[in-house]
Amino acid sequence: MSTLSLPTTPVNAEHSSLRERALAARDRPAPYGPDIDLTHFNKPEARAQVESLRSLHTQIREAALLAGIDAEEADRSASYFQIDYSAIYQHIQQAYQGQIELMTTAEAINRYEWLRDYWWKAVDVDMDKYTAAAELDQTGGFFLRVFARQRVEHPIQACLFVQENNISQNVHNLIVLEEKAEAQLITGCTLHPGVREGLHIGVTEVFLKPGATLTNRMVHNWAEGFHVRPRTGVIAETGATFVSDYILLRPVRSMQAFPQVVLRGEGARAQFHNVMVGVKDSLIDMGSRVELLGRGTQAESISRAVARDNSVIYLRGTFMSRDNDSRGHLDCRGMLLSDAARIYAIPELQAIGAPKSELSHEAAVGPIAEEAVEYLMTRGLTRDLAVATLVLGFLKIELPGLPAVVTQHLERVMAATAGAGL
Amino acid sequence: MLDLDQVDIAVDGRPILHDITLRIESGETHVLFGPNGSGKTSLLMAIMGLPRYQITSGTIRFQEQDIAGLSIDERARLGIGLLYQRPPTLRGLRLGELADICAGKSQTAAVTEIAERLHLGHLLRRNVNDGFSGGELKKSELLQVMLRRPKLALIDEPDAGVDLDSLVLVGETIKRMLELPSTDGVVPAGLIITHTGYILSYLRPTASHVLFGGTLVAHAEGSKLLAEIQTYGYGKCPLCRSQQPQ
């Protein structure tokens, strides 16, 4: 196992240093999103391991399925399932043994001392109070490793499930794809129908070795009183590719994320597709920050957001080029379906010492095109159906690899969202 | 089938057309001539019920029913179809998906048949009107409206910006559409706008009309107004002058 060329510090000294940095940041608000009081959350009970995801209660299986997690594990290479603080299931299909490792991060850190060289190296532990909480009070998370030159045909699925009301789930995930490894990960973050409020902090550090490719699909289904603070960092080496699809269609109290990707190696690439629907009082603040450091690096981010009711959506993007031969394009589009909804599109491009790099953006925010609605009405569609059809088209992205039931669910929710907004 | 009686039309509140009286029966094909900006498209849009085009006076009846208060989709469901001259682009919706919507359930065979007739098969997976050529736009419009089996087809400049091969296809398919009874057995009628008259090589118009100076100034059987307009222009066409209100 090769490691990244990162400074190495004695394990104990580094551990105490991380803790000190986290302690110093434990009250530090994030630059974006409403500040959350972390002191009032409950502690959940520990959950027992299960032999099979099929043994989970129907409500849990159904909620997980709508976030892309298949309890049948059909067409899945491996599964990780966490409820509240407890990792209740980890399984690698027989055919994929030797291609993948999947376990809790706690177990991985104990097993592999070299993992300390990756721990908090793609995300700063003292970024804000949420990263600090993940260090000081970590409550699970998974370690995924795909071995060199392994092309994992079927997706790996990881479910971070909240079952108890008003808890703070603080996970720290670590993903390492070794040289020329390829994998698809479906991360489903969701909750029990009875959960009304709570917090999910998800630190995810991704390390892509030369030539590795990771496609990460995240489906988030939350509740009206729930806060979400993902903190993702990716370091991509030569020729590595990171693809991220993010889907949020259900209400949430607040979701704030600004994943950071460092394209360090020559020819490394990043792609983001974000699809978000703001409903009721949701506040969604989503962006992507990419540093294009290596020669020939490329980044693209496509965001589609629909805001209805009283929702507020921020679409951020920061691409920073430091090499002349790098290219990046940001595409943010927002559609407003109510008088009270707000969308802010904030693309930012920086060329620093790279005068010949090519960075571009296009951003558009506006109502649905009335001419298009009328056009569909001339074909016999009611106004509601015409609007729903256009909103669905606006949000549409290809989602190969997700079960058909999930894709259909997403389309149904999108259509209902559009229709109900009138 | 369509009966406009002394209709005035305003666009965004501005009076554009006045005193339009026009009667089209089942099975008839009428042609509408007129210079650019004379309000031909506005007349079609008002018949279809687009909100910017308001009927401010007079009556509009379709199959004996007053349709002034009906929305676009209600008029569409009664059997009125509109082929746009310049249709909008719909990103995220494929032509094939819209064709399926127009055809209704279990009519995929009709979609395939008409798409093949119009040589449109390769466009069914493309977003509606996205990057379509002039001829492709006309054929796409025709596909959608024909699948709805209209009783009255409002056809806005089907021969504008179309190459000769496409013109043959478009002309022959419009003829076929106007011969094809609606799902409840009504022989359709058509109201067609044309500047050049090229499309008339494929159709046998019942009557033609000239829209000039904000109203209909001439009516004649068949397409004989076309030759006069081509010879004298709209301002001096003898038939137009003789019929103008004094």
Order of helices and strands of chain B: EEEHEEHEEHHEHEHEEEHH
Q: Name the largest protein-protein interface in this structure.
A: A-B, 21 and 23 residues
Q: Which whole number gives the mean pLDDT of chain A?
A: 91
Tell me, briefly, the overall form of chain B: globular
Sheet/helix structural class of chain B: alpha/beta
Count of DSSP-assigned helices of chain A: 7
Indicate the multimeric state: heterodimer
Distance between the termini of chain A: 56 Å
**Into which percent range does the helicity of residues of chain A fall?**
10-25%
SSE order of chain A, as H and E?
HHEEEHHEEEEEEEEEEEEEEEEEEHHH
Low-confidence stretches of chain A: 1-8
Number of beta-strand segments of chain B: 12
pLDDT average of chain B, as an integer?
Answer: 92
Percent of residues of chain A in beta strands? 35-45%
Task: Please state roughly what percent of the residues of chain B sit in beta strands, choosing from under 5%, 5-15%, 15-25%, 25-35%, 35-45% or over 45%.
Answer: 25-35%
Describe the structure.
The complex is a heterodimer of chains A (422) and B (246). With 422 residues, chain A is of the alpha/beta class. Helices cover 18% and strands 39% of the residues of chain A. Chain A has helices spanning 11-25, 58-65, 105-111, 129-136, 370-378, 383-395, 404-420; strands at 78-83, 86-92, 100-104, 142-146, 156-162, 168-177, 182-191, 197-208, 213-220, 225-236, 241-248, 254-257, 260-263, 269-278, 283-286, 289-292, 298-307, 312-321, 327-336, 342-351, 358-367. A ten-stranded mixed beta sheet of chain A has the order 2-1-5-7-9-11-14-17-19-21, covered by helices on one side. A six-stranded parallel beta barrel of chain A has the order 10-12-15-18-16-13. In chain A, strand 1 (78-83) and strand 2 (86-92) form a beta hairpin. Chain A is globular. The N and C termini of chain A lie far apart (56 Å). The model of chain A is unreliable at 1-8 (pLDDT under 50). Chain B is α/β, with parallel strands linked by helices and 246 residues long. Chain B is built from eight helices and twelve strands. In chain B, strand 1 and strand 2 form a beta hairpin. At the A-B interface, helix 5 and helix 6 of A face helix 2, strand 7 and helix 3 of B.
